[in-house]
Design goal:
Strand content: 5-15%
Number of helices: 23
Helix content: 40-55%
Number of strands: 15
Bound molecules: ligand C2E, calcium ion
C-alpha cells in the first residue's frame, strides 16, 4: 500500500496533456486522491466518506465541463466520443460512491478505481487533444470563461511559522515528504497578515523575536480566527504544556506539541494525522450544516417532552462494547434518542437536562428500559448473548423501590438481572442526600451489575467509591480521547485502571476513536473497549447485522 501512496497518487510529467489548464486540474485531482487515501487510514464514518467521495466526483464533473469546453473550442475531432466517455465515468463513479457509503466498497478501492481510470483516460484519450489546440488559444480562453468556474474543494492550508530560516526549510521539506503543500513565514506579524481560516493548520514556533507564538495565538483568538495548531518550541515540555493550557482557555485547538529538535518521522506522522483531522472536522461541519434544520434543538418545551413520552417517540440506539483481549462483543450501551416528527433525531444532551429539571427521568427511564428489554429479546432470537447497559440518572437513584420494580420487570420477561448493567455517574452516586447506597446495594443483591460512568470527572470521593458496590469503572472519554497526546490524561487513565484492579472492578474505556488509543489502552490492561473506532451507536436492527459482520471480519481488523 505504501507503493501506492508514494508513487501512484502523484501526478507526473508523463501524465501531461500539453494543455496547462487541463494539467492544473489533473494535479488537483491527484492531490484529492492522495487526501482520500490518507483519510481512508483513519477509520472515518459513512457521513465523512460520503462528503469526500462526493467532493471528488463534483470536482471531476466540473473538470470535465472545462475540458469539454476546450475540446469544443479547438479543432479536436473526437468530441462526441470523448464527452460520452466522461458521462460513463461519472455514472460509474457515482455507483461506486454508493457502494462506499453503504460499506460495500473501501475508500481505498474507490480511489484506486478513479485514479486508474483517470490515468488510462489521460494516456489513452486526453493526450490526443494537444495536437488540435494550436491556433485556437483565444477561442479556448473565451470558452473557459463561459463554463462555471471550477468548484475547487476548500483546502486546509498548512502554515509553517518559525523565525529560524533553517528550521522553516526543514519543515517545508518534511511537509513535501508527506506529499502536502505548505506556506512558510519567518515572522509572526507577516503570518498574521495571511487570510487564515478555522479550517487551516498552523505549525507554530513559540519562541520568536518580535511577536512570539503565544501572542500570535492570542491575536488570532481575539479576531475570532481559530485554526488548529501544532506547537513547536525549544523550551522544555512543561512550557509547551502550559502554552497548550493557555490556548485551551482561549478555545484554540492545539492538536500536538513538539519539542525541538524535531524528529523527522514524528513530524511527518503528526502532520499527516492532524491535517486529516482538520479535513475531517471540516466535513463534519458540512454534514452538520446540511442537517442544521434537523438537529436544531432550540425551543424544546417541557410540554413537547411530555407529549413525546405519551406518543412513544423515544427510541434507543446501542453502541457495542468489545473485550480488548479476545475482541469478542461483550455488551452494548443503550443510548436514548428522540425520534421527533419534525426535528428528526434529537440527541440526549438536548432533552435530558430538561427531563431532569421537570422530574421526568423516571418516566423516560421506564421507556428506555422497555425498549432495552425488547432489544435484549431480539438479540436472544439472533443467538447473540451479551449484556445490556442502561444509563440511570440521579433521579432514578432516589426511588427506594427501584431494585424491586426493576427486578420484577425483568423477571416477568424471563430475563436475569445479571444481563443488565446499570451505569451511574459519580455525581449521581456520591450525593449525600440520596439513599444511593441503600438502593445500590439492593440492586447488586438482586444480581444487577453496576458501573460507575464518566469516572474522573465528578467530585470523586475514593472512600465512597470503595464503599459502593460497583462492578465496573468506566473511564471518562475526555481522558481516553486525549491519552495519545496528553501526558496528564495518560496518567489519569493509568491510575483509573490501577484503582479498578485494586477494587476488583472491570474497566471500560469509552471514546476510543483510533487504533493508537486502542493499542495504548490494551497495553495498560483495560478490559473493555467502546467508541467510534469499534462502532458508533446504531439502531437495534443494525446492531444484529453489525454483530455478525464483526464476528466474521471486523474483529480481526484490530
Ligand atoms: P454517556 O453515558 O457518557 O454515553 C456515551 C456518549 O458518548 C454517547 O453519546 C455516545 O454516542 C458517545 N460516544 C461513544 N463513543 C464515542 C467516541 O468514540 N467518540 C465520541 N466523540 N463520542 C462517543 P450520546 O448518545 O449523545 O449520549 C450522551 C449522554 O446522554 C450519555 O453520555 C448519557 O449521559 C446520556 N444518556 C443517553 N441515554 C440515556 C438514558 O437512557 N438515560 C440517561 N439517564 N441518560 C442517557
Ligand atoms: Ca453511559
Ligand atoms: Ca460516559
Amino acid at each position: 500500500m505504501n507503493d501506492f501512496l508514494n508513487s501512484g497518487m502523484q501526478w507526473t510529467d508523463k501524465l501531461s496533456v500539453g494543455i496547462d489548464e487541463i494539467d492544473a486540474d489533473h494535479k488537483v485531482m491527484f492531490q484529492l486522491f492522495h487526501e482520500a487515501y490518507l483519510l481512508s487510514q483513519t477509520n472515518p464514518d459513512a457521513g465523512q466518506l460520503c462528503c469526500f467521495a462526493v467532493e471528488l466526483i463534483d470536482y471531476a464533473e466540473a473538470h470535465f465541463r472545462r475540458e469539454e469546453a476546450i475540446m469544443s473550442a479547438s479543432a479536436y475531432p473526437f468530441c462526441k466520443n470523448h464527452f460520452a466517455i466522461h458521462e460513463q465515468l461519472l455514472k460509474q463513479a457515482r455507483q461506486q460512491c454508493v457502494l462506499v457509503t453503504s460499506g460495500q466498497q473501501t475508500v481505498v478501492d474507490f480511489v484506486i478505481f478513479l485514479r486508474n481510470w483517470l490515468c488510462d483516460h489521460i494516456l489513452g484519450t486526453d493526450q490526443r487533444m494537444a495536437a488540435y489546440v494550436e491556433g485556437h488559444e483565444l477561442a479556448i480562453e473565451e470558452a473557459l470563461q463561459e463554463v462555471e468556474p471550477l468548484a475547487l474543494p476548500e483546502y486546509t492550508h498548512i502554515y509553517l511559522v518559525d523565525d529560524d530560516e533553517n528550521y522553516v526549510e526543514l519543515m517545508q521539506a518534511m511537509t513535501e515528504a508527506a506529499n502536502l503543500k505548505s506556506i512558510a513565514y519567518t515572522s509572526g506579524d507577516e503570518f498574521l497578515s495571511a487570510s487564515i481560516t478555522e479550517d487551516d493548520l498552523v505549525v507554530l514556533d513559540l519562541n520568536m523575536p518580535g511577536k512570539d507564538g503565544i501572542e500570535v495565538m492570542r491575536e488570532l483568538a481575539d479576531k475570532n480566527v481559530r485554526p488548529t495548531f501544532i506547537l513547536v518550541s525549544g523550551f522544555d515540555e512543561r512550557v509547551l504544556h502550559s502554552a497548550k493550557q493557555l490556548a485551551e482557555a482561549k478555545h484554540l485547538v492545539v492538536a500536538e506539541i513538539l519539542s525541538k529538535p524535531i524528529d523527522t518521522e514524528v513530524f511527518i506522522e503528526v502532520l499527516i494525522r492532524v491535517y486529516i483531522e482538520c479535513k475531517l472536522a471540516r466535513t463534519k461541519k458540512e454534514i452538520k450544516q446540511n442537517h442544521a434544520i434537523k438537529i436544531a434543538p432550540d425551543g424544546i418545551s417541557v410540554d413537547e417532552l411530555r407529549q413525546a413520552l405519551q406518543q412513544h417517540e423515544f427510541i434507543i440506539y446501542v453502541q457495542p462494547q468489545v473485550n480488548f483481549s479476545n475482541r469478542q462483543v461483550t455488551g452494548v450501551e443503550v443510548l436514548v434518542r428522540w425520534q421527533h416528527p419534525d426535528r428528526g433525531l434529537v440527541f440526549p444532551d438536548q432533552f435530558i437536562p430538561l427531563a431532569e429539571e421537570h422530574q421526568l427521568m423516571s418516566e423516560l427511564t421506564d421507556a428506555v428500559i422497555l425498549e432495552a428489554i425488547k432489544a435484549y429479546q431480539q438479540f436472544k432470537v439472533a443467538d447473540i448473548s451479551i449484556t445490556v447497559a442502561i444509563n440511570l440518572s440521579a433521579q432514578n437513584i432516589n426511588d427506594l423501590e427501584l431494585p424491586e420494580k426493576l427486578g420484577a420487570l425483568l423477571t416477568s420477561h424471563g430475563i436475569r438481572p445479571e444481563a443488565f448493567m446499570l451505569e451511574l455517574t459519580e455525581s449521581a452516586v456520591l450525593s449525600d442526600t440520596s439513599a444511593a447506597l441503600d438502593i445500590l446495594n439492593r440492586l447488586r443483591m438482586k444480581g444487577f451489575s453496576l458501573s460507575i460512568d464518566d469516572f474522573g470527572t465528578g467530585e470523586s470521593s475514593l472512600i465512597k467509591l470503595y464503599q459502593s458496590p460497583f462492578s465496573e469503572l468506566k473511564i471518562d472519554q475526555h481522558f481516553v480521547m486525549r491519552i495519545a497526546n496528553d501526558k496528564d490524561a495518560d496518567a489519569i487513565v493509568r491510575i483509573c485502571i490501577l484503582l479498578a484492579k485494586e477494587l476488583k472492578m472491570q474497566t471500560v474505556a469509552e471514546g476510543i476513536e483510533t487504533q493508537v488509543i486502542w493499542d495504548k489502552l490494551k497495553a495498560l490492561g483495560c478490559d473493555v473497549a467502546q467508541g467510534y473506532f469499534i462502532a458508533k451507536p446504531m439502531p437495534v436492527d443494525g446492531f444484529v447485522e453489525w454483530f455478525h459482520s464483526w464476528e466474521m471480519v471486523g474483529s480481526k481488523g484490530i
